[in-house]
Write a structure and sequence with these properties.
By secondary structure, the protein is mainly alpha-helical. Helices cover 47% and strands 0% of the residues. Helix 5 runs antiparallel to helix 6 and helix 9 packs parallel to helix 11. It is globular and about 45 Å long. It comes from Populus tomentosa (Chinese white poplar).
C-alpha cells in the first residue's frame, strides 16, 4: 500500500480512494491489512461516524470478509476495540448479501462465525476486551450458535469469566449478555476447566 494511501486510511480520509485505479481489496500492508484494518486499528476511541467504512465497503464489498495475515476480519478488529457502531454497520452490510445456497446460512452469520488464526470469533475478541456493547450486538444476532473453543481451548464465556479485574462492571455485563442471550452456551475452557472454575479462581460467581 502506498504510504499516502496508508496515511489516508489511518485518518479515515475517503478522498484519495475515490479515484484510485487499483481495486481497493488489493491495497495491502506487509501484514496484509486492508484499508479497513488500518483504519480500525488507528481509532483509539469509537468513531463518531461510520462514513469512511460505509463508503469503502460501497466501493469494494469483498473487504467485508477479507482477512489479514492473522486471519482477522474487520469485524474482529471492530469487536476488539469496542467500535459498536462499526460492528452494526458491518452486520447490516452482510445482511444485505444473499445466503449461502448450500448451507443456507446468512452472510451475516457466516461473518460472525469466522475465526482468526487463534480460532477466535469476533465474540471471543469482544469478551477478552470487555466490550459489553459489542457483545450485546453479537449475541443478539446469532443466539443459536454455540461458539466453539479457540486454539487455546477457550470459549467466549470462559474468557469473560477469567478476565481481571473480576469485579469490573463491564466484565459482569459481558458474562450476563452471553449467558442471557445465547441459547446454547459452551462453558468450556483449557485443561478441562470451565467458566465456573475461572470465576471461582477470580473470586466471582456465575449464576
Amino acid at each position: 500500500m502506498d504510504p499516502v494511501l496508508f496515511k489516508a486510511a489511518e485518518a479515515g480520509n475517503i478522498g484519495p480512494f475515490e479515484n484510485c485505479q487499483t481495486c481497493l481489496n488489493q491495497l495491502l500492508s506487509p501484514d496484509e491489512n486492508t484499508i479497513l484494518h488500518v483504519y480500525l486499528r488507528n481509532q483509539t476511541t469509537e468513531p463518531e461516524s461510520t462514513y469512511f467504512v460505509d463508503k469503502i465497503l460501497g466501493r469494494c464489498p469483498p473487504l467485508l470478509f477479507q482477512a489479514n495475515k492473522k486471519g482477522e476480519t474487520p469485524l474482529h478488529l471492530a469487536a476488539r476495540y469496542g467500535h459498536s457502531n462499526v460492528v452494526e454497520l458491518l452486520i447490516h452490510r452482510a445482511k444485505a448479501l444473499p445466503s449461502d445456497p448450500e448451507s443456507r446460512v446468512t452472510k451475516a452469520k457466516m461473518m460472525l462465525r469466522m475465526t482468526n488464526g487463534e480460532g477466535d470469533t469476533a465474540l471471543h475478541e469482544a469478551a477478552r476486551n470487555s466490550q459489553s456493547r459489542v457483545v450485546k450486538i453479537l449475541t443478539k444476532e446469532d443466539r443459536q450458535f454455540s461458539y466453539p473453543t479457540n486454539v487455546h481451548g477457550e470459549t467466549p464465556l470462559y474468557i469473560a469469566a477469567s478476565i481481571i479485574p473480576w469485579g469490573s462492571e463491564e466484565r459482569g455485563k459481558v458474562v450476563d449478555e452471553i449467558i442471557g442471550k445465547c441459547v446454547s452456551v459452551d462453558y468450556g475452557g483449557p485443561n478441562g476447566r470451565t467458566a465456573l472454575h475461572a470465576a471461582i479462581t477470580m473470586g466471582d460467581s456465575i449464576t
